Amino acid sequence: MKIIEKIDDLQSALKRARQNHKSIGLVPTMGALHAGHIALVHRAVAENDVTVVSIFVNPTQFNDKNDLNNYPRTPEADCTLLEKAGATIVFIPAADEMYPEPDTRQFAFGELETVMEGQFRPGHFNGVAQIVSRLFDIVKPGRAYFGEKDFQQLAIIRDMVKQLNLNLDIVACPIVREADGLAMSSRNARLNPAQRQAAVNISKILNLSRGLRVKPAMTASETVAGTKKWVVEQLNAVPELRVEYFDIVDGQTLQSIHEWSDTTFPVGCIAVFDGDVRLIDVVFY
Description:
This protein has ten helices and nine strands. The relative contact order is 0.13. 39% of the residues lie in helices and 19% in strands. The strands form two sheets. It has a six-stranded parallel beta sheet with strand order 1-4-3-2-5-6, sandwiched between helices. It has a three-stranded antiparallel beta sheet with strand order 7-8-9. It is an alpha/beta fold. It has two domains: 2-173, HUPs (Rossmann fold), CATH 3.40.50.620; 186-284, Pantoate-beta-alanine ligase, C-terminal domain (Pantoate--beta-alanine Ligase, Chain: A,domain 2, 2-Layer Sandwich). It has helices at residues 7-19, 35-47, 65-70, 75-85, 95-98, 117-120, 124-139, 151-163, 193-209, 224-236, and strands spanning 2-4, 24-29, 50-55, 89-91, 143-147, 169-173, 241-250, 266-274, 277-284. A hairpin with a 2-residue loop joins strand 8 and strand 9 (277-284). Helix 7 (124-139) packs across helix 8 (151-163) and helix 9 packs antiparallel against helix 10 (224-236).
């Protein structure tokens, strides 16, 4: 496994791989890796000759400087995990390597970016698009791998690929969870014991809410609005937790549904503050 910090060095290595007709997969990360990331790497290793994993805490996607400063950084431990997982190259650039000049590009994703995360984290998805498009341009992978926990981000990236007419496949990978159901996240490391115990309620309540979906709805709680209300009330009743948003949307458009029959792909997306740590999760109904 090679650890590369400079774009020119990375592109030279990948040029040689292409000359040898090798396929290239990319797993973009911000580091502080866990089993969820490693599952993406395993998938990439299985499907490509060369797997590039980037580690870069991208400043342009943080609208909260404290969140940026507190984001965990564990490059040595990350590289140990990646070598065991079979990664070919780990790309760990400095900020001035990725952004020698300010990136002033503005992307437009329409209604995909105005809801949920876009509503509560203004500018976040433009920053995501900036860094991911930059990585795609540098690496030029045939496939890129993302987790379904960041469901809205996945939709944004797919739309960006269409807008930029890029020739690559976006591969969505299932959420990896702890034994008790908590979705794996780098932010979990910031939870104290009480918060960690409270956090398991997020996936627990989301899973229970799947049982409220009945066609046709027979009681108020079985409607979409009733399900949303029940989830928020249940989670807000846990002392450590505060729901920022919970919506049930069409999995393609990300727009709110009002009846279960409005879509064949209903998805529940949630953001919850556990103390001062913000956690997201997804449930597929």
